[in-house]
Amino acid sequence: MVKRTFQFLIFGLLSLSFQASADNALPDIGGAGYSVITTEQEHKLGEAWARMLRGSGRLYEDALVSQYLEDLTWKLVTYSELTDRRLQIIVIDNPTLNAFAVPGGIIGIHAGLLLHAENEAQLASVLAHELAHLSQRHFAAQLEAQRRNSPLMIASILASILIAAADPEAGVAAMQSSMAASVSSRLSFSRQNEREADYVGMQTLAASGYDPKAMPQMFMQIQQTTRFSRTPPEFLLTHPITQSRIAESQNRAANLPSGQRSSNSIDFNIARARIQARYADKLGELHAHYQTEMTAPSDSLHYALAYTAMLQNNFSTAKQHQTQFSQAFEQQLPSRLLSVEILLKQEKLPQATAALETLYQLYPGNQAVAYLYAQSLTKSNQPAKAVKIYRNYLDDHPRDSRAWYLLAEAYGLAGDIAGVHQARIEYFLQTANVDQALQQIDFAMRENGLSEYQKARLEQQKQEALRVRDSLKMDF
User: Fold this and answer.
1) What are the boundaries of each domain within the chain?
2) Which of 78-87, 317-326, 441-450 reaches the highest mean pLDDT?
3) CA–CA separation, 139 vs 126, rounded Å?
4) pLDDT range class, residue 153, cuts 50, 70, 90
5) Rounded distance, CA 107 to CA 141, Å?
6) CA atoms of 360 and 352, how far apart (whole Å)
């Protein structure tokens, strides 16, 4: 799958670049002074690339973490220079340090980024930097700069990021090859992009209330934690960090307001604790490590201890730490969801479902609540109700491939074969598996007793599949 999508990406981007190189007198149709690619073409490129990433990479399945990262990103977007806000935030199940921006509004975040950021302000600095790449249209700028030169560079770098999301070692090798093939002038232009993204990102940080000094602090943190690494993380390959860059970012940050927002939040600590547990080799050792920090107890520390205890089926210890939550934290969503997760882990489905029904009324748009509620209903032999929850959620999150996959399962348990077909088709389209989508449409069309509406909907999906196939060629 990765090989196929890699070939699609290389072919499409080479086609785009060769087309641009062949005509040095293109009219300025892109806006912001760029004539090689328009903002709408960037959006289509991003849509196609995101489909391929969802089909080739392993997405992070902890909806509470994904919701937190989406909320934080959108909080920053409000104060950014980004005008085209058709964004997709994709969280990758990968413990390595990486984040990237792809033209068309795609922000990719490796879950491992939270293992390296010491606080929320540092995490926000990376996201603000990536938003700056999008707002300043650096992809279009780089295409503009290289249209008279070899078109391979950007194509290979984008494809390398795609591969790295699914296979870090292959991605690093491909990235190193593409970087080595670049000429010094192109690297210089890349450094210019990075400096501009640093500056614009710092302005976003300051405007949103974070201390802009968090960005150079994050740079130093990355440099320190990776200096003895034999293989540099993908982030350093696309965002080279030098002492001069750190010094320059420190000087710029000193001239910006420090911000009134706390550098950290309990939501960051909770997300980080869940990610640490996800990638821990031995949960018992992680739990013991948290216990050594109990000299300064806090809600987030008790949460981490309760969460790791739950994962080890040590429910009495989990509940013991829950009793230490402050009264204010007890009423917050992460605390209440943890109680539900413990009930689900204990197979106490009636209690879990009842609690989730209440939370769903209070937080109807929250993806963690929606996922847990639908899954609890499915386990409780109420698949028809689960279908409604997934459908409502997908109305607002139509690109969530995992939700389409689970919806297909719920339809199957409910005995709705037409629904299974519809959901599977959408799943395949969202993961760039067009051939499988078309095959599923053929299967669906053979079903007896289809209504005229269902036939029309299948024909509509067929046309959509053909459109997606064309978009994956990225031939602008």
Assistant:
1) 2-254, 280-325
2) 317-326
3) 18
4) low
5) 18
6) 12
| Contact criterion met (CB below 8 Å) for 455 and 476 | no
pLDDT digits (tens, 9 = 90+) for 14-60: 444 434 444 433 333 334 455 567 888 888 888 888 998 899 879 99
How far apart CA 312 and CA 323 sit, in angstroms, is 19
d(CA 9, CA 474): 8
What is the full DSSP assignment across 36-87?
A: SS-HHHHHHHHHHHHHHHHHHS-B---HHHHHHHHHHHHHHHTTSS------
Using CA atoms, how far residue 297 sits from 113, 173, 233, 306, in Å, is 25, 44, 33, 13
Single out the residue of 443, 433, 386 nearest to residue 412, CA to CA: 386
Checking phi first, is residue 99 left (phi over 0); if not, alpha (psi -120 to 50) or beta? beta
Asked whether 72 and 128 are in contact (CB, 8 A), the reply is no
Residue 107's beta-bridge partner residues?
A: 89, 101
87, 103 contact by CB (below 8 A): no
Distances (CA, A) of 321 to 29, 146, 370: 60, 58, 26
234 alpha carbon, distance to own chain's centre: 16
Q: For residues 249 and 242, give the distance between their C-alpha atoms in angstroms, rounded to a whole number.
A: 11
Cα 450 to chain centroid distance, Å, stands at: 37
86 alpha-carbon distance from chain centroid: 14
d(CA 215, CA 201): 8
What is the tens place of the pLDDT at every residue in 299-317? 999 999 999 999 999 999 9
* Cβ atoms 419, 411 nearer than 8 A: yes
Q: Which two tokens stand for residue 148?
A: 């008279």
- Placement of tokens 């391979």 in the chain: 152
Distance CA 244, CA 368 (A): 42
Residue-by-residue DSSP string for 423-467: HHHHHHHHTT-HHHHHHHHHHHHTSTT--HHHHHHHHHHHHHHHH
Spatial contact of 142 and 154, defined as CB atoms under 8 Å apart: yes
Q: Concatenated DSSP letters for 169-233?
A: HHHHHHHHHHHHTS-HHHHHHHHHHHHHHHHHHHHHHHHTTS-TTHHHHHHHHHHHHHTT-SS--
Q: How many residues are listed for the chain in this entry? A: 476
